[in-house]
Amino acid sequence: DVENISDLKKLTVLGHGNGGIVYKVRHQKSNSIYALKVLNTTSSTIIRHQAAHEAEILKRLDSQFIVKCHAVFYTIEGEICFVMEHMERGSLFDSLRVRKKLSEDVISGVAYRVLKGLQYLHGMQIIHGDIKPSNLLINGKGEVKIADFGVSRIVEETRNNNNHNNNNNNNIGEAAIACMGTCAYMSPERVDSERWGGDYGFAGDVWSLGVVVLECLVGHYPLIGFGEKPDLMALICAICFGERLEMPETASPEFRRFVRSCLEKDWRKRGTVEELLAYPFVTKRSSSSNIEGLII
Ligand code: ATP
Ligand code: MG
C-alpha cells in the first residue's frame, strides 16, 4: 500500500484534464505501477472543495466496474493527489480516436460494464454526473471502468442543502461546477436546470451513457451533424430540442431500442439502469465482447 507520496516516482504523463495532470508512477517499495492524478488547488477554492469532495467519495468506492482509488494525499504546495489504479489502455476517448467506430458487440460490452458501475454508484446514492468517453478507462484485459468523480455529488447532501439552506451560500458555485462538466454529454433536464441532483440526477447518467453508446457506433459526437462547429448554443438546442437521432442504417433493432430509451428527453420516461441491464442489446452480447475491439 502507498503510505507516502515521496515513494512514488513519476514515469510519464498519461493525460491532462480540467485543472489537473495524470502521471504514470512507480511505487518504489513494491514496484507497482499506479496512475497519479494531481490537482493544483491553490488557485481556486472551488477546485479545492471539489477535489476534497471527490476524495471523500472515492475512498468509499470498491467495485470491479469503478477505477479504484488507493490513496489521497494533500501536499503542502496545495495539491491534491489521487493514487489510482493504472488503466493501461487509456480511455474510450483514445480508443475512439484511433478506431473511429466500434462494433455493436464491443459497444454492448462497454454498455454492460458502465451500467454495472452506475448500478453500484446509484445504489450508494451517488450520481456520477460526468459520464463521457475520457472518463471511461480501459485496463490491460480490455475491461472498461468508470473514473473521475470531479463533479459528482452525493444526492443526500444535495437534498440536505435544499432542505436546510435556501440561500445557497455554502453551495460551492453551482454554475462553475456545471461549466466544468462537459456540456455535450449532459441531459436535457440538467442543461435546463442550474442545480442538479434530486430525483432526476440518476437519469442524467443514463442519458450520458446513451450519447456515448451512439457516438461509439456513429464514429463522432452524435447529437449535432459531423463537422458542424461546436457552438455552445447549437449544442444546447440539439440536446434539449433536437428530434432527429442519427442512427446508422446498419444499427440493429436492439441497439436502436437501447439508445432510444437512454436518449428519451423526458427523464421520467427514460429507462433506468436496472431496466436497461435487462435489454436484449445488453443481455445478448457475446462473452468476448469487451476485449479485442477496444484495444488500440
Ligand atoms: P476532465 O478533467 O473533464 O475529467 P479528462 O477526463 O480528459 O477531462 P482527467 O480525468 O484529468 O481529464 O484525465 C486525463 C486523461 O488521463 C484521461 O483522458 C486518460 O487518458 C488519462 N487517465 C486518467 N486516469 C487514468 C488512469 N487511472 N489510468 C490511466 N490513464 C488515466
Ligand atoms: Mg476525467
UniProtKB/TrEMBL annotation:
Tell me which InterPro entries the record gives. Answer: Kinase-like_dom_sf, Prot_kinase_dom, Protein_kinase_ATP_BS, Ser/Thr_kinase_AS
Its recorded name reads mitogen-activated protein kinase kinase
Q: Which domain of life is it from?
A: Eukaryota
Q: Which PANTHER family match?
A: DUAL SPECIFICITY MITOGEN-ACTIVATED PROTEIN KINASE KINASE 5, DUAL SPECIFICITY MITOGEN-ACTIVATED PROTEIN KINASE KINASE 5-RELATED
Give residues annotated as binding ATP: 37
Lineage, broadest ranks: Eukaryota, Viridiplantae, Streptophyta, Embryophyta, Tracheophyta
One GO process term, biological-process aspect: response to other organism
Reactions catalysed:
L-seryl-[protein] + ATP = O-phospho-L-seryl-[protein] + ADP + H(+); L-threonyl-[protein] + ATP = O-phospho-L-threonyl-[protein] + ADP + H(+); L-tyrosyl-[protein] + ATP = O-phospho-L-tyrosyl-[protein] + ADP + H(+)
Species name for this entry?
A: Citrus clementina
All copies of the Protein kinase domain together span 8-282
Q: Which UniProt keywords apply?
A: ATP-binding, Kinase, Nucleotide-binding, Serine/threonine-protein kinase, Transferase
EC number(s) on record? 2.7.12.2
Q: Molecular function (GO) terms listed?
A: ATP binding; MAP kinase kinase activity; protein serine/threonine kinase activity
